[in-house]
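Subgroup meeting minutes
Present: P.N., E.W., G.H.
Scribe: E.W.

1. P.N. recapped why we're keeping a running log of single-chain structure predictions: easier to compare across weeks, and new members can see raw inputs and outputs side by side.
2. G.H. added today's entry (308 aa).
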Amino acid sequence: MQDVYYPSKDGKNTIHAVVWKPEGEARGVVQLIHGMCEYASRYAPFAEFLNKNGFIVCADDHLGHGLSVKSADDLGYFNDRRDYSVTVEDIHELKLIVQKESGDLPWFVLGHSMGSFFCRKYISVYGGEFKGSIIMGSGFKSKATLNTALFMVKLNAAFFGWRNRSKTIKKLAFGSYNKKFKPARTGNDWLSKNHDNVDAYEKDRLCGFDFTNNGYYILFSVIKQACSKKVIKAVPKDLPVYFVAGDKDPVGDYGKGVIKACNKFHKAGVKDVSITLYDDCRHEILNDVCKEQVQDDILAFITEKLNG
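Output recorded in log:
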């Protein structure tokens, strides 16, 4: 694993990223976009799996996450402009950096959870540069729901500031996620059935922290973008898109939101859209009991599009 550092598009911070390389000659590159309250290096087992199959893998720590923060106070805080496009451009900058060494190898992108919504926006802008996209742990929210969420965040920020970590906003956003997993062992049982994964997440100081109002504003803003007709229509019609999620994932409304998002892509004219819902699996399918099947399915998708 190689550490990479580069200036963020916010003009003041430094982005940390990691690159995993195969031992032999590479046949492609897979870029990973991590989710909320986690970081790139959590994907090391999956990256190493892809390395063994001949792929370079890269991932950045978004602003407010991982080693891209200067102090614990910055966890869950993106940028002063409250602009989601800064993170989109930071993601693309890593692609440009890695391409200087990898050359014209075919490129794939995978986004998980919050990263899935950034990925959906990303491929609407730069989708022509990819051979395929994997949308993991995603879903669909209405414009009205997201406008209400944004209003609540702005209202809280007006009283308490953009760095406030509101328990009320957190409860509104995620308070229902554990309800279907009672009796819950922890507050994060919704992440996966794998107890070891949940325990490791809870013990990791770079995971599970409370978002700031700034973080929630950008989160809801990029979800609103990703679910908009304009953004979905901007995805290249010939870009293969593969939705994967657990059918017990509350982020995807237990499969219904994932199916709805998939159908929106179909309706927009994207020709090659497919979906796999994993039976009795939750949010972090790369760390859940189905992880080996998920890895194999993603590899099969990438290999098919690589050879297609």
